[in-house]
Amino acid sequence: MQIIDLKLGQELYGIDIRYVNSIIVMQNITRVPKAQPYYLGVINLRGEVIPVMSLRRRLGLEDDVFTPSTRILILKPDDSSESVGLIVDEVNEVVTLEDDSIKKVNYDEKDEKAVFSAGIGKNGDELINILNVPAIVSEKNV
């Protein structure tokens, strides 16, 4: 499995590369009234209006602090869905993980955010929380 290795604070996360359309630098976001709290608004990317969400807010972490390394990952969860932007603190590199280096983690089923993790990957000495992109962008998990 190939993943994009990214950071939120000091924590490492990974997103399966098949969901990633592009990675862009932070840009002005137009706010949208009455949107979910984790949606910061929309951007215009090459003529397409793309909703942008804060991964930090979606995961229940503290608010974003935008730095020069802040990036927006443009994701396409599946062929039939619209693109979604995901704000992350930093994008590191593409990492290849073998199937036997990825462990499923048992969570409390009452925790609605438990579905956001697809497992923990081991890359050398580092542990990477692999994100379940369809669950994160789904409105069912609000």
From TrEMBL:
<feature type="domain" description="CheW-like">
    <location>
        <begin position="1"/>
        <end position="142"/>
    </location>
</feature>
<protein>
    <recommendedName>
        <fullName>CheW-like domain-containing protein</fullName>
    </recommendedName>
</protein>
<dbReference type="InterPro" id="IPR036061">
    <property type="entry name" value="CheW-like_dom_sf"/>
</dbReference>
<dbReference type="GO" id="GO:0005829">
    <property type="term" value="C:cytosol"/>
</dbReference>
<dbReference type="InterPro" id="IPR002545">
    <property type="entry name" value="CheW-lke_dom"/>
</dbReference>
<dbReference type="InterPro" id="IPR039315">
    <property type="entry name" value="CheW"/>
</dbReference>
<dbReference type="Pfam" id="PF01584">
    <property type="entry name" value="CheW"/>
</dbReference>
<dbReference type="GO" id="GO:0006935">
    <property type="term" value="P:chemotaxis"/>
</dbReference>
<dbReference type="GO" id="GO:0007165">
    <property type="term" value="P:signal transduction"/>
</dbReference>
